[in-house]
Amino acid sequence: MDELELLKKDWKKQEGSFQQISEKEIYGMLHKGSSSIVKWILIISILEFIVLNGIGFFITDKEIENFQKLHPYLNIIEKFNYLILLGFIYLFYKNYQSICVLDSSKKLIKNIIKTRKIVNYYIYWNVFIGSFFGSFAFYDGFKEGYQKTNTNIEPLSDIGVLIIFIFSMLIVITLIFVFYKLLYGILLNRLNKNFNELKKIDY
Amino acid sequence: MKSESEALFVKELKENQNIIHKICRLYTTDEDSHNDLFQEITIQLWKAFPNFRGDSKFTTWAYRVGLNTAITLYRKKKRTIDTIEFDSSFHKVTQDDYNFEEEEKLKLLYSAISELNDIEKALVFLYLEDKDYTEISETLGISEVNARVKMNRVKGKLKKILNP
């Protein structure tokens, strides 16, 4: 007999060997929480939105006031940033809603990855805008520091400040990048692998 | 209080639970993971139950949700070691139909299947369940022609393991 036919025959025979789950056990399962990857992505994404937007609360009003006085035009960008946040939340929600377990495997994985990507874009945007605001704050801080300390050391030139700033930003961005690679590498590794496998079959 | 739809769902699931058991058998290697995946599939089926319409069979629907959960949504717990061999004590044979050669072949086949990737396992599963290529292609989201090509490759791979 063909090996695969033999396997099929055996596969059908095994039906009786499974320990049957009772109705009571099924009822119990219905009220347990899911531990699916989508749930994890949702929790982590909400935490990211909260953390990124909560940072502002740790900076005192006085600091913000001083900063705004120095750079009034940055206010407009800050308002614009709220619009961006709303846009991202809307996109995230819309994509999250599109995840449906009844879709084909390929479509399901694609929608999950797409939803996750929205949050990634939001993080990239925050890194960008953070560096933008950060550069002003960094510059101010440097100037102020020199005025206060009243040392004999020659103040750094603007280019010197810029180089130090770029260097610190690179470290921060690398750290963020490594953190995300690790976090989502673990979380999305299997999804990406299966999605690539499905894509490979069709091309 | 147990609602009417809850009762209906539990009844359908109880009757068709072997589909889920078979998926769990293919994608997990120990009893705890089997039960974990069974539970996750049950939860996903229940969550999607409001969208289930009587015009398609519960089983058709269970195949799709079950496989999608196994391939996509289920997060393997740390204790699951991918390389553990398929538990061959699973299939019990009665004395009268015992055939040593066949048993050896089956052991090899099950062990070969456990080495396949998630998508290949899904193809083998649908083949063993006698699903046609239209359903296979719709379930996985690949074209019918390519599903056929890939299936033949997987079959070839399994046969090669048996007859090196």
From TrEMBL, chain A:
Keywords: Membrane, Transmembrane, Transmembrane helix. This is DUF4328 domain-containing protein. The chain crosses the membrane at residues 37-60, 80-97, 118-139, 159-183.
Automatic annotation (TrEMBL), chain B:
Residues 14-80 form the RNA polymerase sigma-70 region domain. InterPro entries: RNA_pol_sigma-70-like (IPR039425), RNA_pol_sigma-70_dom (IPR014284), RNA_pol_sigma70_r2 (IPR007627), RNA_pol_sigma70_r4_t2 (IPR013249), RNA_pol_sigma_r2 (IPR013325), RNA_pol_sigma_r3/r4-like (IPR013324), WH-like_DNA-bd_sf (IPR036388). Keywords: Sigma factor, Transcription, Transcription regulation. It comes from the Bacteria. Pfam families: Sigma70_r2, Sigma70_r4_2. Residues 108-158 form the RNA polymerase sigma factor 70 region 4 type domain. Belongs to the sigma-70 factor family. ECF subfamily. This is RNA polymerase sigma factor. It comes from Flavobacterium fragile.
